[in-house]
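Summary for the funding panel

The consortium committed to producing paired sequence-structure records for every protein in the target list. Below we show the first two records in order, beginning with the earlier of the two.
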Amino acid sequence: MILIIDYDFLSKFGKIIIHKYEEGLNITIKIGNMIEMRKGLIQIYTGPGKGKTTAAVGLAVRAIGHDFNVCWIYFHKEPSKWGYNELKVLDKLGVKIFGFAEKHPHFYKDVTSEELREECLKGVAFVENIFKEDKYDLIVLDEIIISVRDGFLKEEELIDLLDKKPEKTELVLTGRGSSDMMDSLIQKADLVSKIESIKHYYDSGVESRAGIEY
């Protein structure tokens, strides 16, 4: 048996593991970072139902299982106060995690729109720098759609950010948006999942539960 290994292919796509047995040669090729991600796509998880961030967490875990470099950037969440312990797990798995505009007027009456806009713009600039570094296979912008919906970012600012995405980076946006702002985002995205709320236990008085909602 003649085995020809293209090392240029291996250096570009992954690594080869060769197991030798007495009865012959068994070859397993493991493709690190998947078979070439020819083009990273844009995904949006939106809608009034529960599960948008949860879906993004699941995708991040799957990507880590393929040895992807993953970055998670959240908006309008305050893990130090409310938990969001999924971030602890992602951190242990090697995901780089950053947060901006952690507060929101719905929970903090003393925070101003001007302050939040400034924080959101810092987040956008940070993402642009990460795009320039081009070292992540998957980037999640958790709840950034909320930033646009509530006026802390302009819709065109988010669209402009999407245009700067590196070609091979998969980008995920989450958050519940208004119908009038979603059309242009839907046009830019390759996948849009709208999660509807058919029935929710909140309506019967069940409060948020640790380990389930946060």
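The next record, for a separate protein in the list, is shown here:
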Amino acid sequence: MELNSFTRNIWQSAAAPHKGRFAAWMARILHTLVLLGGPGIFLLAFLDSSVLSFPVVTDLLIMQQAISSPPRMIYFAAMAVVGSLAGCFLLYWLAWRGGEAFYHRLSKTGSEHLRRWMEHNAFLCIFAASLLPPPMPFKPFIILAGILEVRPRTFATAIIAGRGLRYLLEGWLAIHYGAQSIHFVLGHKWEFAGLSLALVAVLALASRLISRALAPAA
């Protein structure tokens, strides 16, 4: 599948902050990945969630592939979720290994409450970070989860839920609105971020209300 001029222009705008050889190198990488289809999306999501950073590009690739092949949209979104999960676990593991000494130092200085707070709010924090589009921060939450040793099951569930909702929504928009949806997503990042934060706030409030309602019966 060849990159059409519209998609190439979109990716060039996504790479605009980068100059010189890096921008040219990234363009070649993106061209190769789109030819790979689902495996390319997996690899891009893995790299973006771990050792490199390709803001927005994974989202654009999912949307471009969904427009080209609507019946496979769920497959493309799933490959992105699995790739992102694998990359996040790599970053989580590195932070966990490198952060053990830091965590034990926090414990000695009376900062154990930080870990308790993260244990109670880890799912919502990681879910929100996974759902929010760039330029909202993501990797700092993954690193913090590793340092504070968030349970792997909670970590994985939050990543899958956040990334899955985000990628499926983008794929749905791409199928129903075509190339215009890509312009819309790129032009309304902050609106999407605001809606995502509102959703997380509603979920947090509902969780607290349910917990309080069930507390007397426990």
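Regarding this second record: The mean pLDDT is 78. The CA atoms of residues 66 and 72 lie 7 Å apart.
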